[in-house]
Amino acid sequence: MNAGGAVAQHGDPDRVFRWASVTKLATALAVLTAVDDGSVDLDEAAGPPESTVRHLLAHASGLQFDGDNVIARPGTRRIYSNAGFDALGALLEARDRRPFAVALSDRVLAPLGMAGTELRERPSQGLHGPLSDATALAREFLRPTLISSGSARLATSVAFPGLKGVLPGVGSFDPLDWGLGFEIRDGKQPHWTGTRNSAQTFGHFGGSGTFLWVDPKLDVALVCLTDREFDDWALEAWPPFSDSIVALVTH
């Protein structure tokens, strides 16, 4: 899709899928709306000692993948953490004085018309919804309406540059660049996006075989929802699929 809407589509747009970690993009967006309205500050303490909201969004808090153990000082390593995003959900829940699922709906899902999507599990991985709603989220990332242009630029720029880490299921990278909720492609090889994607491409994939990327240089986004758990097949299929879509929309 591009800013004008869907360029091509396959499958039932109303079938509900588990989004897994693509959920983190919506959670990050909800937190950023709270930053813009002053409910949350990026540099306030959150998570483990010395960590901030910014660290949690950028997977730089030192929290392990799951659980409360701290395995690095904040700002020293990129450690992909579900626990960090669950902590962000708890923070927003406290600030909004309502369950996180309600805050997420009020701040993101309802304004974007994502009526078929609901949070059934954790803020890090719990959204279930249809392709039509996932494309509405991708459209928002192409042309932000819920957050300021400054917040959008910050979220899709590298936070804490130079941190090395492991992109789960893909490999180790030095650096492993990440924004505020969004993984940034940069020069990573191999990668789950396509060889035709620009270095500015940002997005996320999930363990349920889902992904969403936005290429701001090409002004194109691609969403894929499946019911096939992420495994080696994804890294074999996704890059050529992405390349074919880029070729379709740029010629």
Concise description?
It contains seven helices and nine strands; from the N terminus they run βααααββααββββββα. It has helices spanning 23-36, 53-57, 82-96, 100-109, 131-142, 149-155, 232-249, and strands at residues 16-18, 118-119, 127-130, 165-167, 171-173, 183-184, 202-206, 210-215, 220-224.
Overall description:
The chain is of the alpha+beta class. Helix 1 packs across helix 3 and helix 1 crosses helix 4. It starts with 15 loop residues before the first strand and ends with a helix. The model has no long low-confidence stretch (mean pLDDT 95).
Main β-sheet, spatial strand arrangement: 6-7-8-9
N- and C-termini, Cα separation: 14 Å
The beta-strand count equals 9
Approximate shape: globular
Supply the helix-strand structural class.
alpha+beta
Strand coverage percent = 5-15%
Instruction: Kindly provide the radius of gyration, computed on alpha-carbon positions and rounded to a whole number of angstroms.
Output: 17 Å
Low-pLDDT runs of 5+ residues are none
Sheet with the most strands?
4 strands, antiparallel
The helix count comes to 7
- Mean pLDDT over the full residue set: 95
Order of helices and strands: EHHHHEEHHEEEEEEH
| Proportion of residues in helical segments | 25-40%
